[in-house]
């Protein structure tokens, strides 16, 4: 089947796909300014809503990620049917309303409700973002461009952790103001989506006509295409992404609290240390993804190696006897962890997924990955309440990552052998 690409023929200046890369990067930046914002200032939030257990605080993130995960497949299907703008703009307007609800919350229940709405709104983004990416970015640049887009996650996380630590903890700014800032940024983003994103009816019509023609000529191949969302390679990717996200979202939700309560960090040092993961990921993702673009036939090796290194760096972090080794572990996890391996994994999925249903493909992929984010925060909180330490949660994340990497390796090795 011929790959359809809507990349403009323009060879100089700012091309449409360049604008898409910048816009999508900013989208992830704002989303990730929001995601860790409450976890970094739990003590300040509890001054407003009253004291809560670790499990109850962990449920804030679970409410967000439950709604976010539930939206992945429906949002992907809506993107394929109605287009990206028709899905992502209403979603981010809902996200804006949710941020304002949380900013005016006076009970844990209001924060739960706001988190659910925020998750529903953000759930519109993944399928739209990566289908835009897959349709418009040339395959020769896909890994590196995906890494640039993904750096928005690192930038947003780093900005959020630093802003909450200095503005709220050190300078005494009311924690609610962080949510108002986020709401204002979201409205700017919505305007950007409306102005920059171009729907391409001709591209969609051509894709549909090509699919129908292929089904007429070769019905067995069309059947395989229809069910390739659950091919062995795609299932292996789902498992790998689940494990990758589990460790990352455990860190996002509990690292600041872990550093403060179990490692003695205070004030701005909490945000500075936590943001090392995010900022270290930027050069790691850009450099490694650029190399993986040059050796596209070796992407599986890159994925497996990076996942094992990430597991080792997490182990180093929790076992460190000194602050120096702890910080080194966080830096190396940033360099080789989720934000670095994700662009390569997404490029791998883009090559194995159905080409005419990218929205649904990435929706299914992210559904399985983000399912871990529903489990990790409250489970880590529960284990901390049970054992008296959050280190147990790190060990669980490390074990899941190692097991998933082995499964990913075995399935892809078997698939490679069958294709020979």
Q: List the total number of helices.
A: 17
**CATH level-4 homologous superfamily:** MFS general substrate transporter like domains
| Name of the CATH class | Mainly Alpha
What average pLDDT do the residues reach?
83
Give start-end ranges of low-pLDDT stretches.
Answer: 1-11, 205-226
Q: Which class best fits the helix and strand makeup?
A: mainly alpha
Major β-sheet profile: none
Extended strand count: 0
Query: What is the third-level CATH name, the topology?
Result: Growth Hormone, Chain: A
What is the overall shape? Answer: globular
Give the CATH architecture. Up-down Bundle
First-residue to last-residue Cα separation: 21 Å
Q: State Rg.
A: 21 Å
Q: What number of domains?
A: 1
Q: Please, could you describe this protein's structure?
A:
This protein is mainly α. The protein has helices at about 15-35, 40-50, 55-80, 85-105, 110-120, 125-135, 140-170, 175-195, 200-215, 220-225, 230-260, 270-295, 300-320, 325-335, 340-350, 360-385, 390-420. The chain is about 80% helix and about 0% strand. Helix 16 packs antiparallel against helix 17. The longest helix has about 30 residues, at about 230-260. The chain starts with 15 loop residues before the first helix and ends with a helix.
Protein traits:
single chain, 420 residues, mainly alpha, Growth Hormone, Chain: A, 82% helix, globular
Please render the helix and strand layout as text.
Blueprint: H1 16-34, H2 42-49, H3 54-82, H4 85-103, H5 108-122, H6 125-136, H7 142-170, H8 176-196, H9 201-217, H10 219-226, H11 232-262, H12 268-294, H13 299-319, H14 323-336, H15 338-352, H16 358-387, H17 391-419
Helix pairs in contact: 1-6, 1-7, 1-8, 3-5, 3-6, 3-16, 4-5, 4-8, 6-16, 7-12, 7-15, 9-10, 11-12, 11-15, 11-16, 11-17, 12-14, 12-15, 13-14, 13-15, 13-17, 14-15, 16-17
